[in-house]
Amino acid sequence: MFLFGQIDLPIKLVPGHSAGTVLAFYLTSDRPNRDEIDFQFLGNVSGQPYILQASVYAGGFDNREKIIYLWFDPTKDFHTYSILWNLHQIV
Q1: Secondary structure (3-state) at 79
Q2: Residues 6 or more apart in contact with residue 87 via CB below 8 angstroms
Q3: Parallel, antiparallel, or unpaired: how do β-strands 61-69 and 5-11 relate?
Q4: What is the pLDDT of residue 79?
Q5: Are 48 and 34 contacting, i.e. CB atoms less than 8 angstroms apart?
Q6: Measured between alpha carbons, how far is 34 from 42 in angstroms, rounded to an integer?
Q7: CA dist 26 to 2, 48, 55, 85, Å?
Q8: For residue range 54-91, what is the model confidence (pLDDT) as tens digits?
Q9: How far apart are CA 91 and CA 6, in angstroms?
Q10: Residue 1: band (very low, low, confident or very high) from pLDDT cuts 50, 70, 90
Q11: Phi, psi dihedrals of residue 29, rounded to the nearest 5°
């Protein structure tokens, strides 16, 4: 069990029509009522914004989900995506 930490991932998404492709990263606990932090890049149809979906599960409940329409093109270069967590917050 990790009480605090940070992970940084350099990611460059696939350009063009990528519907049906999902890139996901998650951290999870090994408990019956799991705790989990994850983010997923959802594939898209050419010309549409890329979507990042982030979720937090605490005690097995997943009522903390956020969908972000990216304002930049994540296929042009590597971008660093980070998760920072401690006892008081998840950023």
Answers
A1: strand
A2: 3, 4
A3: unpaired
A4: 93
A5: no
A6: 23
A7: 14, 25, 9, 13
A8: 888 777 767 778 888 989 888 899 999 888 888 888 88
A9: 9
A10: low
A11: -90, 160
Cβ neighbours of residue 88 under 8 Å, at least 6 residues apart? none
Three-class DSSP labels, 41-61: EECCCCCCCCEEEEEEEECCE
DSSP strands (E only) in the chain:
5-11, 22-28, 36-42, 51-58, 61-69, 79-85
Contact call for residues 75 and 11 (beta carbons, < 8 A): no
CB atoms inside a 10 Å sphere around CB 12: 11
| Two structure tokens written together for 38 | 């994850």
Which pair of tokens denotes residue 75? Answer: 């296929």
Q: Phi/psi of residue 39, each to 5°?
A: -140, 150
